[in-house]
Amino acid sequence: MNDKKPISYLIIIPITIGLVFVVLSVLSLLNNVIFWKNATESITGTITEITTSESYDSDTGHSTIHYAAHVLYAINGKEYTTQTACSYYESVGDEFLLHYNPDKPEDARGGGSRYSFSIISLLAGGIMISKAIKTIKKNSKQPSGNYNQSSGNYAKK
What we know:
By secondary structure, the chain is an alpha+beta fold. It has one domain (9-141). The chain has helices at residues 9-38, 116-140, and strands at residues 41-57, 62-75, 78-86, 95-101, 104-110, 146-148, 153-155. Strand 1 (41-57) and strand 2 (62-75) form a beta hairpin. Helix 1 (9-38) runs antiparallel to helix 2 (116-140).
């Protein structure tokens, strides 16, 4: 008979989701680090449009509005447009400071919070993995004997 309790899908799923969060966060952090290392130039562009999107948190019942500025800027006589997060008080026609890599002027970003989303996602993934590992360790300390999968109990030998 099998003496070990099977690993539950309730443990595998958080580990998998946590790993996805960690991998995507690390990739996002690397992308940001590379961008900001190479973004040695800045330019002022003009906001041509502001779009909004709304996210709803079903746990708290709160919704949040996110603002994105479409910014027109010109480098060496060539015009580019980028979309970047902005504050609610920005308006069409306002000037907006952008940072860019002189070798890739089409890739420009506003200053904003450079790493916060990646770090928060990394922490969330790490917490999910940590909790799942603690659950596995806790379950591995169950009494020895034959595990009855249908009842979820151990039978003494």
